[in-house]
Specification:
Blueprint: E1 3-6, E2 9-12, E3 25-30, H1 32-40, H2 42-50, E4 53-56, H3 59-69, H4 78-92, E5 95-100, H5 103-116, E6 121-125, H6 135-148, E7 152-156, H7 161-169, E8 177-180, H8 184-189, H9 197-201, H10 205-212, H11 214-237
Parallel strand pairs: 3-4, 3-8, 5-6, 5-7, 7-8
Antiparallel strand pairs: 1-2
């Protein structure tokens, strides 16, 4: 896949998934919120910079690429990655693993998969809810994944926790694709509703999420989005970045 270099991040500019990778591939997403958070969290920043694919999951990133580099790319959300992987797994009767969320949410995911992707084998694991996992917690998660040996592993612990966990544990995981997709777990389970397609097409998904869940999202969109825009403007005024 081709990438554009936006500041220090190599962002996929032409996402397409015709087959699953045959070696371990780490896929992360970046948006305005994660960009700002990564500036404060060196480990999170390293996770975003060193993964194999970094998808532009936000109109802010799409705008920044156009604003700084004059290149038009399309937004690729975690939900888009999730669907693309499931479509491929269904065609080959593959296996996927969901790591994260509650047992209730994971059970809802299982039920939906049975209806929409009957040929996929699925396993799940709900890790304990705590800020930092113990060595035993990590060992239990890794053992659960490796016992199943999935073609694809979806991690949903919210950013930046999920990306940092993958960074620190990927070498021990026996799978081909690892995708940190956060809120997609809740969307696919029906626990939360993703904004309608017309809002997504118009670049207003962020607004739909703000309106539907202001208590949890207001800070992300009202505070961090303007901070992000300012950071991009500062880059514009500073050095020009190259394209790869």
């Amino acid at each position: 896949m081709e990438t554009v270099l936006l500041s220090d991040y190599a962002i996929v500019s032409d996402f397409r998934l015709k087959e699953l990778p045959n070696k371990r591939t780490i896929v992360n997403t970046i948006n305005a919120y994660s960009w700002v958070m990564a500036d404060k969290d060196p480990l999170f920043r390293r996770a975003l910079m060193t993964g194999d694919w970094l998808l532009p999951d936000g109109v802010g990133v799409v705008w920044a690429v156009r604003f700084l580099l004059g290149i038009k790319i399309r937004k690729v959300a975690g939900a888009d990655l999730h669907k693309a992987v499931l479509d491929l797994l269904e065609a080959k009767a593959g296996k996927c693993f969901y790591l994260g969320a509650s047992d209730s949410t994971l059970n809802k995911i299982r039920e939906r998969l049975k209806q929409e992707y009957p040929h996929i084998s699925v396993e799940t694991y709900s890790p304990p809810y705590k800020p930092v996992f113990s060595e035993e917690d990590n060992r239990n998660m890794i053992e659960a994944v490796n016992a199943f040996q999935p073609d694809a592993l979806f991690v949903g612990m919210t950013a930046p926790k999920q990306e940092k966990w993958v960074l620190e544990n990927a070498e021990s995981l026996q799978t081909h694709l690892i995708g940190s997709i956060g809120a997609v777990f809740d969307f696919y389970a029906g626990v939360k509703q993703r904004p309608p397609q017309w809002m997504i097409r118009l670049g207003l998904e962020w607004f739909g999420r703000l309106v539907s869940d202001p208590r949890h999202t207001w800070k992300r969109y009202v505070i961090y989005n303007p901070v992000y825009v300012w950071k991009i403007i500062q880059i514009k005024w500073g050095r020009k970045k190259s394209i790869t």
